[in-house]
Every structure is written in structure tokens, then in C-alpha cells.
Amino acid sequence: MRLLFATRSHGKQREARGILEAAGHEVVFPDEVGVPESAAEAGLEVADSFETNARTKAEYFQRKTGLPTVADDSGLEVLSLGGMPGVRSKRWASATGSPHDVDLANNAELLRRLRGAPASKRSARYRCVLVLLRRDGAVPEVFEGACAGRILDQPQGDGGFGYDPLFWSGDLAKTFGEATETEKAAVSHRGRALQGLVEALGSTA
After folding, report:
1. Is 73 marked active-site?
2. How do residues 9-64 score in pLDDT, each as one tens digit?
């Protein structure tokens, strides 16, 4: 199946392409199908739930392209911070600039909030919700994934993106910043949600 994965994040694009193409599906992204970034996209992730944000994005890009569309919303939830940053993970520090600059600012904000916190207060999980719209008016199909870990007091590794260098994975016994793409895909929140999507689509590989 040819799928539009509705994200402009290069990190998410790599992860989606790796898993979906391995299952025999063609994956394209907005820029590749002639949908330039617009100011309207800033209003697509304003809800208080991952599922609502993902559904809004899927509906927007499906209408734009007519293609079967998958959209993602995901983030980090720190238990001692009441689940923050949650749906605001990307925008937590209100930073602007390159994706790298935004990641650095968000990581600095996370470290500031947890400064001096013991290990018992650093439990966290990544969550991802994917919404698939096969056609206009179709019933949205929802796939979720989560992975547990804790937040370190300093980054380790320079791989991944977002909070990955601070997120110590309980499954891997290392940070996502230290993990290879294959290791991360096997246990990550997005990897698990994507595997659920692949099962629903059926592998053609």
C-alpha cells in the first residue's frame, strides 16, 4: 500500500520508513507529494490528547492529498511532573529555531524541572498514538505504543532525537540516544505503534 505519513520530522520519517517499507509498503511524506508547509499546520496539535491531535492531522493531510494517511502524535510523560510534557513535548520550552535547537531547549527544561530529583522521581514513559485514515470519511483506525524508562540527570549518546539522550530505556538498559535505530525500533513507543499498524495493513514483503 502507498501511504502518506503526515509528519515533517526527519526523525519520525526515518523510523516510519524503516518499519513500513520493511513490510512492503511505500511511504511518502508531505513534501514529497507537493504539500508545502503552511501556517495552518500550527493549529493541528492544540488538543489535550495524542489521539485527537493525530486524528486532526490525518484528516487534514488526507483531504490535501487523497492518499491513505497515517498521522502520529507522541511525547514524553514524566510521572512526578503529572505527565508533563505530554502532548506539549515538542513545544514545552517554547523554543524556536532548528529542530536541534528546539530539542536542546526542551531537554534543558526537563533537566531544570527534575534538578535534584532522586531516581524514584524520574520514572517516565514515551507514548505514541497513530491514526490511519484509509480514505475520506473512513472510520479512523487507532494504534498505540508505549515504553517505560527513566530520565537521567545528563544526556548520554547523540543518536535519536527529542528527549532520547535523556531517556534511559528499561528494555535496552541504555538511553535511546545510545541505541541503534534497529534497537530503538524494536522497543520504542513509535516502533510498537507502527507494528500494530503493519499488522492491520498486512505485510506485503
Report:
1. yes
2. 999 999 999 999 999 999 999 999 999 999 999 889 899 999 999 999 999 999 99
Q: Which of 73, 101, 103, 158 is catalytic?
A: 73
**At 203, is the secondary structure helix, strand, or coil?**
coil
Number of structural domains the chain divides into: 1
Q: Nearest-5° angle of CA 64, CA 59, CA 14?
A: 80
- With a CB cutoff of 8 Å and minimum separation 6, the contacts of 158 are 165, 177
Q: What pTM value is reported for the model?
A: 0.93
Q: What is the CATH number of the domain that holds 172?
A: 3.90.950.10
Task: List the domain range (segments joined by +) for residue 161.
Answer: 2-201
SS3 string, 91-141, reads: CCCCCCCCHHHHHHHHHHHHHHHCCCCCHHHCEEEEEEEEEEECCCCCCCE
In the block, cell 488538543 appears at 47
SS3 14: helix
How far apart are the two ends of the chain, measured CA to CA in Å? 11
